[in-house]
Amino acid sequence: MASFATSNIVVLCFVVLVSWIHFNAEARRLGGNISVNLIWYGNFKPSQRAIVSDFINSLASSKLVSPQPSVATWWKAMDKYYHLTNKSSSLVISLGSQILNESYFLGKSLTNEQILQLASKGSQRNPINVVLTSVDVAVEGFCSSKCGTHGHTKSPLVSTSRSVSASKSSRPMLPLMENSPTLGTSVVFMASCIINCTSSMNSETQCPGRCVWPFHQPIYRPQNPSLVAPNNDVGLEGMVINLATLLAGTVTNLFGNGYYQGPKEAPLEAASACPGIYGKGAYPGYAGDLPVDVTTGASYNTHGVNGRKYLLPALFDSSTSTCATLA
To answer: What average pLDDT is seen over the chain?
Structure first.
C-alpha cells in the first residue's frame, strides 16, 4: 500500500540522545482538517474497499459508536502528542476521494517512483494519499524488507520515506531537537504487499508472518494459534493494521524530526514502537487479552462505523512512557 500527501505539520520523535534532550516547541505539525484519499491499484472487491474506507470514516466519526472503545477513541490518543505545546491544534481525519486503477496501466511490478506517480493522482491540497495494491501486484522492497512506508515529497519524483517493520526496542522515546522543513510538502504513504503476500503464502518472502500477524503464524515468535480476522479477510486486516501504524507515524513524524526511537532512517514511531501489542498482557507470540466475537470467534479491540470491528496496534503514550492498549 502506499500513499502520498500534502500537509501542515509538526511531528514527534522517539530517540535516545546521550547528553541533553530538548523538544522543539517551534516545530510545525500536521494539523487541522486533513482528507485521506484512497488510490486502489489493481482489482479489489467492493467488500474489500469497504473495510478500509469504513476504517478511515471511523477515525473521526462524530457519531457515538457503541459499545466502546471505538476507532475514534484509539485515534484520540494522538492528541497527547499535539498538546505537548500550546501552539498545536488537533488533527481531524476524514475520508476524501477514492480512485480506482483497475487497468494496471503501470504494469504489475511497481518501483517506488511509480508508487509516487500513483500517489500524485490524488488531491494535492492538504491530503494524505494512500496507494493500495492488489494481490497480483509486486512493489519494490515490500515483503522482503518492510510492510509499509510513509514519507513526504516536494514533487512526485523526490521523496523521503520511513518504513514499518517488525523491529523491536526497549529504549525510551524522547523528543529529538531539530527544525522542521517548510510546510506545504506532500506526504507519501506506502503500505503495499499485505494482500499479495498473504494470498500467495510465498515461503521465500514469508510476508504473512511478518506483516499480517496475529492473523497468521509469525516467523520467529512462538507458534500460537492465529487469531480469527473480524472482517473475514486476513489480507485486508493486515492492511488496516499497517495503515493504522503508518497513519500514526505520518502525523507524529512526517518529516523525520518529530517523535521516534532509534535511527532516523528506520525509526520506531508512535505505533511501531509497540510491536505485537494489541491488548493487556501481550508478550512475544501473544497479542494480548482481547475481546472475542461470540458469533464469529474473531478477535478485535475497537468498534467502527457500520458495525465494524478492528484490531489496532497499541500506541506509545507520551505521558506515561508505556505502550497503551484499549482492550
So the answer is: 73
